[in-house]
Amino acid sequence: MADSGEGIGNVPEHERILQEIESTDTACVGPTLRSVYDDQPNAHKKFMEKLDTCIRNHDKEIEKMCNFHHQGFVDAITELLKVRTDAEKLKVQVTDTNRRFQDAGKEVVVQTEDIIRCRIQQRNITTVIEKLQLCLPVLEMYTKLKEQMSAKRYYSALKTMEQLENVYFPRVSQYRFCQLMIENLPKLREDIKEISMSDLKDFLESIRKHSNKIGEAAMKQAQQQKTFSVALQKQNNVKFGRNIHINDRITEERNEIVLKHTFEEEDENEEEVLTVQELVDFSPVYRCLHIYSVLGDEETFENYYRKQRKKQARLVLQPQSNMHETVDGYRRYFTQIVGFFVVEDHILHVTQGLVTRAYTDELWNMALSKIIAVLRAYSSYCTDPDLVLELKNLIVIFADTLQGYGFPVNRLFDLLFEIRDQYNETLLKKWATVFRDIFEEDNYSPIPITNEEEYKIVISKFPFQDPDLEKQPFPKKFPMSQSVPHIYIQVKEFIYASLKFSESLHRSSTEIDDMLRKSTNLLLTRTLNSCLLNLIRKPHIGLTELVQIIINTTHLEQACKYLEDFITNITNISQETVHTTRLYGLSTFKDARHAAEGEIYTKLNQKIDEFVQLADYDWTMSEPDGRASGYLMDLINFLRSIFQVFTHLPGKVAQTACMSACQHLSTSLMQMLLDSELKQISMGAIQQFNLDVIQCELFANSEPVPGFQGDTLQLAFIDLRQLLDLFMVWDWSTYLADYGQPASKYLRVNPNTALTLLEKMKDTSKKNNIFAQFRKNDRDKQKLIETVMKQLRSLVNGMSQHP
């Protein structure tokens, strides 16, 4: 039962497979047949049985169909056999007709071939004419191209090439000669590029050589234009009565002459200045630019041009090693740079794209940094202020010229302020030499004048005002020496020299005024002050010269306000409306006076020491000479004469010098008594020493310098006086009793000083028997001396324990 059920189930499946095989293309039967093998076992055998059954059924159907159509097939074969006979007859007739027709048309064929041959020749001739008409213009244009190349009309030759390529060659491109021409055009283009590039290189070399002349012409033109503008402005100011940089050495008539000369010189030189177009032929650049533009290689040309010009810029910016030695070296450097950038500016404005504003700005910024570095380095070598001033003028003209071509130059004017500081340094060094020469040539004595003319000459040089001096009859003397007016004149000359650098810096009058005042302050506080201090410290400068130097500095200090007015006049700045810098004359000359005063005190003390060294006391003398020592009288006479000279000094200076001299003299005399090398002193020597001190006191009491109150000056010798009185009166009981009391008679006597001097007198008494009378009369007195010395030692020891 199971097998039969399985067979029934497979029969429809086998029929389906057979239907698919019959209806499907033979190429796709594979999957269907594979399904037969994928089924249950024995399925293949069953399928084959089913397939055999199907084949037998189809054979039966074919046999039925053939039996049905057999009679019709037999009838058709019979009819076809009948037609074959008629066909053979028709073939014979057609062959005969064709032979007779061919024999009749042979002559016609010959004539027709002749006609065809003539028509072909006619057509070929027409074609040749047409093609020649196409080729002739090409050949004519190519001939024209050759002529343009020979005539070096390269731009026109390139245009001709374009016409040949775009218009003529396409018409005859099939011909070999055209191909040869086409192949030759790139070579011609390369030849044109090489020739034009060679011309460009020659041009670049030419402008490199002519940059100096180009820059010189441009700077000259800018300078003339500026000079003309300044002169015109001055003329207008003079015409309208304006105050323009007035100074006392340029008169109005000279201004008019200078202006007239300036205008005439401008008229003469205007024709001589050539433009850059007149100095340089720019056609190679234009031609090369056009050629490369036509060739479509404009970028290559621009890159090459810019690269070469940058190389030339670096060469131009490289200064010569000795450029700083002469102004011509700087001038060549500037003119080459100006020439370079004038050419670039011209190229910028007459061409499109070859150079751009961004390119020129970049090139200028690079050049400007290099220029500033070079000028900063080389200007530092300049020690001549005139050369620095000429360098400044060149930089101003250089900056103005390039500014006229649109290049920013603010950094150059900033550099000028650095150079201005250096210029001031060179001026200060130069004027230091000038001041030293003036001081060397001065005789340090008041200026004598014998008549009114000499008086006016001095007054014209130095602003001195003294009504009392004016009333005095001739001959008379100015209080200052000859160096004062010379110094004043030289300070004004320094201001003029400093003003020369400040001009044309595009700064306001206020800024120029401030710069002048600052540089003048430097001259006063550093240069002049240093020269004065060096002068004061020179060994050969004596007391008289020092006194005169103090007087001179006083008058120079008073003249500073006139220098301020002078600066105000030449800068045309009102002191009421502007906060101006003041001149530091007070501090400058005050320092110099203090130094001179200190030197006076030092030299006066040194002179006192020289006299004291001449002292020749006999310290063992028994009786005094009855008169003061000669060295001391000479010293006092010297002091009197010196203090007479001090009458021209300020009161406090003379008083301080007098007090210092007396104190130093007192100290020197005290040191002479207490000198450790001095072992013995007699009472006679003490008495002789007392006579000298009395003369010192008389000198102090005579008021050698007015202004002291009471016995102030005598107090300089109070220590000596009390010490000498103590020994001469021999008032030891009073000294010891009142020691330490504010009202003590011998308050200024130090126990150590008294002990030292007493020991020297004791040693003398042993040898010279000065105290013999004491020993003879009363040996108790000797014991008293011993007692006094013991008490003095105890006082000294007490002082050391309680300082």
TrEMBL record:
GO biological process: Golgi to plasma membrane transport; intracellular protein transport; vesicle tethering involved in exocytosis
Key words, A-Z: Exocytosis, Transport
Domain Exocyst complex subunit EXOC6/Sec15 C-terminal residue range list: 412-760
Domain Exocyst complex component EXOC6/Sec15 N-terminal: 50-219
A Pfam family assignment: EXOC6_Sec15_N
One cellular component (GO) term of this entry: plasma membrane
Family the UniProt entry places it in: Belongs to the SEC15 family.
Function: Component of the exocyst complex involved in the docking of exocytic vesicles with fusion sites on the plasma membrane.
Official protein name in the record: Exocyst complex component
Organism, scientific name: Pipistrellus kuhlii (Kuhl's pipistrelle)
